[in-house]
Amino acid sequence: MGRYQKKQLLKRRCRPVTLRGLHKAAFTKAAFLIFKPYYYLDQPEPAALHYLYMKKNSATKKIFPANHGRDFFIFITTLTAWFVLVTFFTCVYFLAIPRNTNTSPKLVVAATTFPLFDITRNIAGDNATVLQLMPPNSSIHNFELTPFVEEKIQSAQLIISLGLEADGWTKSVAEKYAKKTFIVSSSPGISLHYFNNNLPDPHYALSIKNATTIAQTIARYLISLDPEHKNQYETNEQLYIQKLLAADKIITEELLPFKERKIITQHNAWWYFAHDYNLDIPITFQETAGKNPEDDYLKKVVSEIQTNKIKTIFFEPQLSTELLKKFATQNNVSLSSIDPMDGGETNESSYIAIMLENTKKIIESFQ
Question: 185 with 163: CB under 8 angstroms?
Fold first, then answer.
C-alpha cells in the first residue's frame, strides 16, 4: 500500500462517524453483498482487504472500508430496531381503537306495530337488532301477511305482538318457524278497555301509562333471552321511562287550559288516549273500524257535531277517507290527521314524537 493510500485510510478511519452515516454505510454494503454489483479491486493484497471500488463514468470512486463483520452487525441491528418500532406503533394504534369483544351474534327481535317496535329498540339499544313487521300506511284492521314480512319473522328469535287478535297472523307464522312469541297484552299491569260487544280494544299502546308498562315488560323479556347485556337493558329502560313520563307531563299541561275536550275520530281507536287526558269522544265516524257507516248512523254523527259544536273530525292516514271527505264538506267541518301508529314510520320518527304531534293537532281543533 502506497504512502498516499495509507494517509487516506488513516484520515477516513479518524473521521467522526454519525449514527445516520453508519446505518447508511451498513445498508449500502449489505446491498452490495446481496446483489453483487460489478466492482473491482484496484490494489493487490492487502489493500483489497481495506477498500472496495466501483467503476462509474470511467472513474474510480472509493465507497467504504471493507469491514464485513461490523457492517453486517449494524445492518441486523438496524433492521431489528425498525421492526420493534413498527410493531410498537402498530400495537398502540390497534389498542387505541375500541373493539367489540363480544363475538356472539346479536339477538334479533321483530315487533308487529310501530309503538312496540320503537319501545323495543329504545330498550335494546345496540345490543339487539329490532325489526318492524307492519309496513307504512298499514292498519291492524286490514293488514295481510306478505312474503317479505314472513321472511323477517323467519330471521328473528323473538316476535313481540299486541295480541287480542289485532295481529293474530303472527301466531301461525311463529309456529311454522318455531319462533318465540311475546304477547304484550297478556302482561300484568296493562290496562285494557272493552267495547260494548265485550271485545277488547287493541290500541292500548296509545296510552303512555301503558307504554311505560310495555317498556318494563319488554326489558324483562330481553334480559331473560340475553342476560349478558342485563345492565344495558336496565339502564336503557330507566332512561326511556323518564322520557315517557316527561312526554305524559307535557301533554297533560298543554291540554289543561281547555275545559271543552270533545272530539270525533274516524274510528274507535282513541279511547285510551282520551281516558288518560280527560277527552270526550261522543261518537266516531265509523261504527266499525274499516267499514263505511250506514245512513242512519251518519245522522247520529251529524247530530253530535251540531250538539257539541265540533269543528274537526280526526282521520287516520292508514284508513280510506273518501266518504269522510264528502261528509266533512257537506257538514262544514274540517279534517285533521292523527296517527295511531299501526304501520311503520320513518327512522326519524318516534312513538313519543308522534304522541306529542297528535296532541298538538287536537289542541288546534279546540282553538
Answer: yes
Among candidates 49, 60, 52, 13, which has minimal Cα distance to 33? 52
Q: Is the pLDDT of residue 210 over 90?
A: yes
Give CA–CA dist 334/311, Å, rounded: 6
Report the distance separating Cα 155 and Cα 249, nearest Å: 38
Q: How far apart are CA 128 and CA 49, in angstroms?
A: 73
Distance CA 235, CA 173 (A): 33
List, for residues 258-267, the tens digit of each pLDDT value.
Answer: 988 999 999 8
Q: β-strand 158-161 against 107-111: which pairing, if any? A: parallel
Architecture of the domain defined by 257-366: 3-Layer(aba) Sandwich (3.40)
- Using CA atoms, how far apart are residues 358 and 247, in angstroms rounded to an integer? 12
Residue in the block written with cell 277488547? 200
Q: What amino acid occupies position 2?
A: G
Q: Who wins on pLDDT, 27 or 263?
A: 263
> Where do the structural domains in the chain lie, given as residue ranges?
17-96, 107-251, 257-366
Residue 232, number of CB atoms within 10 A of its CB = 18
CB 204 within 8 A of CB 192: yes
Longest dimension (CA), the chain: 131
Dig out the grid coordinates for 9 from the structure. 485510510
C-alpha cell at 281: 269522544
Is residue 316 within 8 Å of residue 326, measured between CB atoms?
Answer: no
| Beta-strand pair 51-56/264-265 | unpaired
- Per-residue model confidence as pLDDT tens digits over 48-82: 444 444 444 444 444 444 455 555 666 677 778 77
For the stretch 215-226, pLDDT in tens is: 999 999 999 999
Domain 107-251 class in CATH: alpha beta
CA angle 244/249/255 to nearest 5° reads 125
Is this structure's pTM higher than 0.85? Answer: no
How would DSSP label each residue in 168-195?
THHHHHHHHTT-EEEEGGGSTT----B-
